[in-house]
Amino acid sequence: MDEETKKFLVSSKNVEIFASKNLIKEFDYSLPGSGVWKAIERELNASIICHLRRSRNIVNDDPWVTLRHHSEEVNIFTNAKGRKVNLNRREKSGSPQLGGVMLGEIAHILLFGDHNGVNDDFDAVGLTPEMVEFLMCELPKNIIKVSSFRNKNAHISAMSKKDYFHLSKLVLGDEDEPKKSLLGRILSLKQELSSIR
User: Fold this and answer.
1) What is the SS3 assignment for 168?
2) Using alpha carbons only, what angle is made at residue 183 by residues 179 and 185, rounded to the nearest 5 degrees?
3) DSSP string, 43-76
4) How many CB atoms lie within 10 A of CB 34?
5) From first to last of its 197 residues, what are the pLDDT tens digits of the chain?
6) Torsion angle, alpha carbons of 173, 101, 78, 143, to 10
7) 32: buried, middle or exposed (CB in 10 Å: 19+, 13-18, 0-12)?
8) What predicted TM-score, i.e. pTM, was given to this entire model?
9) Structural domain boundaries of the chain?
10) 16, 46, 131, 168: least surrounded by Cβ within 10 Å?
């Protein structure tokens, strides 16, 4: 887990603890919730999107800095209607810093994997069968669940304590088995992809 992800989770937990002890029942739990969904989004970018960028010669060792001097688009399709995501999208114009890909876009990249070549990308690297099953079947569904919490609560709706704990349970799982959580499995995928390259 990278340092930025740790910051998101520590901040989230600290706000959750403070709110539970000191604030009113109607507190908006999207504040700690944002740390949870940002952690997932960051680790998906550092694993799946990084792998796709490496396989297309966009990045090398640093998954957030492009090797390309020009900002030409390197697109990957996310549906049959021609919707696509630019893997070479910059954080700012003229900057070598790459922007992250959003949760929904990552889910659609994976769901459309049979048609956009992503399944072939991951088949070629020799992931374990369990990891392939997770990556192609379970993960997109879980990303959509996290994304639905985010979309519902990031802008105009307050997040209830109950929804926050559902999100937290989905992402972080049980404290005694962190490797079985969604985040734990994404970190295992990241480790497997790192060891293969």
Assistant:
1) helix
2) 50
3) HHIIIIIHHHHHHTTS-SS-TTB-S-SS----EE
4) 18
5) 899 999 999 999 999 989 888 877 788 888 899 999 999 999 999 999 999 999 888 888 788 888 877 778 888 888 878 788 999 888 888 788 899 999 999 999 998 888 888 888 888 888 888 888 899 889 999 999 999 888 888 778 888 889 999 999 999 987 777 678 899 999 999 998 888 76
6) 10
7) buried
8) 0.90
9) 3-196
10) 131
Does residue 36 contact residue 172 with C-beta atoms inside 8 Å? yes
CA end-to-end span of the chain? 18
DSSP one-letter code for 164: H
Q: What is the residue whose two structure tokens read 């959509």?
A: 144
Contact 97, 91 (CB under 8 A): yes
Of 56, 177, 163, whose CA–CA distance to 120 is shortest? 56
Please give the structure tokens belonging to residue 59: 């990045």
Q: Of 95, 43, 44, 40, nearest to 70 (Cα)? A: 95
